[in-house]
Amino acid sequence: QQQVKQSPQSLIVQKGGIPIINCAYENTAFDYFPWYQQFPGKGPALLIAIRPDVSEKKEGRFTISFNKSAKQFSLHIMDSQPGDSATYFCAASGRGEAAGNKLTFGGGTRVLVKP
Amino acid sequence: DGGITQSPKYLFRKEGQNVTLSCEQNLNHDAMYWYRQDPGQGLRLIYYSQIVNDFQKGDIAEGYSVSREKKESFPLTVTSAQKNPTAFYLCASNFLNTGELFFGEGSRLTVL
Fold this sequence. Notes:
The complex is a heterodimer.
Chain A (H helix, E strand, L loop, with lengths): L3 E4 L2 E5 L5 E6 L7 E6 L6 E6 L5 E4 L2 E6 L4 E6 L8 E7 L11 E2 L3 E6 L1
Parallel strand pairs in A: 2-11
Antiparallel strand pairs in A: 1-3, 3-8, 4-5, 4-9, 6-7, 7-8, 9-10, 9-11
Chain B lengths: L3 E4 L2 E4 L5 E7 L5 E7 L5 E9 L2 E4 L6 E3 L9 E3 L8 E8 L7 E2 L3 E5 L1
Parallel strand pairs in B: 2-11
Antiparallel strand pairs in B: 1-3, 3-8, 4-5, 4-9, 5-6, 7-8, 9-10, 9-11
């Protein structure tokens, strides 16, 4: 059962464009929503994360928007650069049996930023 | 330096052989995890352990086995019962009840 759905699967933008990746979740017990960035042949690394008490969080050129009522959250990469080309994963987790005490990942989005 | 070390980075196996992937962490993390990643697919949880000598099945545990005899070590055995073992395997760890997961560099297993 896929509890976190991520779209699109891939995305191509020109340098300076704003790739947007969307995720939707089902489990209302989730209370932590991170995004991970993975370069080819490497393990994923935490990029930015949000909790449901805020609707937006920015770190550098990366912004998470969160809509609790719609159970959706998204990642925006402002002024994208070729070095941002990577696979991005959204994830969700929460405490207790209902959330499983572990991260559930979306299917990933491969982003290519053309020079 | 603190981190998660996976070995080997590349591994080739003949059909019918068991292989063991190593994962060691020196971050003093309580929990450790194994994920499988296939091309174009997300990260699927194989097994995880929140305390020494205890572990739970993830979403795709069939054909795999683990042990957690020490806090810092969580080896994964890919058995001959795993039908499609060729994949990129990622080990991760974190403190209990904290969100951030730290990943190793991965081990790529190819079955010949």
